[in-house]
Structure formats: structure tokens, C-alpha cells
Design brief:
Blueprint (H helix, E strand, L loop, with lengths): L1 E6 L4 E8 L4 E5 L15 H12 L3 E7 L10 H5 L6 E5 L10 E3 L4 E4 L2 E7 L8 E5 L2 E5 L19 H11 L7 E4 L13 E3 H7 L9 H12 L8 H9 L4 H13 L1
Parallel strand pairs: 3-4, 4-5, 5-6, 10-11
Antiparallel strand pairs: 1-2, 2-3, 7-8, 8-9, 9-10, 11-12
Bound molecules: fe (ii) ion.
Length: 261
Amino acid sequence: MVNPFFEASTGSFCYIVANPESRCCAIIDAPLGLGCGDTVVNTHTADAMLDWIHAHEFVARWILETHVHADRPSAAGYLKSHLLCAKTAIGDGVPNLQGYDQLLGDGEKICLGHTHGRVIATPGHTPGCVSYQFDNAVFVGDTLFMPDTGTARCDFPGGSPILLYKSIEKLLSLPDCTRLYVCHDYPGDRRRNRCVTTVAEQKLANIHWRATTCADSFAALRSQRDRTLAPPRWQAISIPANLQCKDIGEIQVLLTQTMNE
Ligand SMILES: [Fe+2]
């Protein structure tokens, strides 16, 4: 079972994947909150996840990150201090990662009681991006967005639109009914936020990625779009904090330093 949570200040979706038989669960991409004029990071969404886990009597085994988020600090360090049975983990494709309990490679298993998920390397947005598959659900991080908003940017350090093209090809080779859970949705005023789509829906309607589009054409379109995007507001805090799985106290110090510069 999949339980989505939405962190409004950074527009981020995050998830709890729970196995009702074993009572084990995994947390994916939990953010700290940080509004425009905020001087203090908040734990509203992470606390809602903790409340859900306790109320439903699950044991968290994993605190997973799909990548080093550039747009908001992760709540992984904060959650780890509250969930003593859980391991923090992230894909192993980025140098200088520190503080995580485990670095995960392509194909690695994620044990969740009697079942397991698997890691799918999906670089492009960043070199270390991974997706997590549990049964028919895949948590795709920043790769695909909803079909009408296309794909994730590739202009962060080590990003590559060619690699993103190949990663999307890999995701869309899964069965059509596979559910794809995204990290962000940017619908503007057109519709409500959505967090889940399917392989079939993406193959039919993604505005950036088509099976008939070659990698070079996709890369040209993606790079052109990336040149129009501003850097994320909290990049200077988020990248160092998330490379090192920092706890909330250290992240607050980083925020204070940044605001005083
Ligand atoms: Fe991202």
C-alpha cells in the first residue's frame, strides 16, 4: 500500500510504502518544509509521516532518497532520529555522499519484511538518481513528471538529458499498468496536483518524451527548456545538506548562515 504526502512549501510529494502483512514500511523522499520568508525549517510533513506510521503500527525499515534534492533539505536525518529501526539510503552514483547508512546500486534489493523492492538506476536529472520499485509501484523521483508537464530538468551538476532519455526509456519498458509516483507536479492553474500516473499514460501523452523522439532531439528540447529555468531557491542549503544526510540542527545552521550572507 502506498500513502502519499504533499509538502506544500516546496511542492514535493513523498511517500510511505507499507507492507500490511509484515507491518514494515519504507519512507521515500521526505522533505523538510521551508517557505519563502521562513527563517526556520519545519517538520510538518515528516511529523505527519511519523504520526501515520505510529497510528497504523508499522515499523519503518528504510528512509530512502531517490536523489540529492537541490530544491529542499531532506528530512531523512530528522526521521532517522525518530525511527531507530530504519536505515537511511540513497543511490551510489554521486561522489562525496556521507552520513547515509547504505548506498544503493542498480538492481539492489530493498527488504521489507517478507517481500522486497528493487533499485532502478535512473540518472539524468542528477548522476545518482534512482527509482524504487515495489510490486506494481515505482517511485521515479525527478525523471518523468505528469504527462502534461513532461520531464525533470537536467542542468544540475552532473545532469545529462541523454542519460535522462535512457532512464525514461527504461521506466517505460515496464508493463503499461505500472504506477509511477512522481516527486513533483507543476500544473499551474490548469488542474489539481497529481502524484501518480502510469506507463501507458506516459507513453501516450508525455509532452517531452515520445518513443519516436530520438535521444538527441529530446536532449536539445530539454536543454533549451533548462536554459529558461531559475536555480532552486534553496539550492545552496539543500545540496550540501542532502549530500551528507544532515540532521535538522545542522540544516538550521546552514539556513541561518545563508540568510546572514
Ligand atoms: Fe530533484
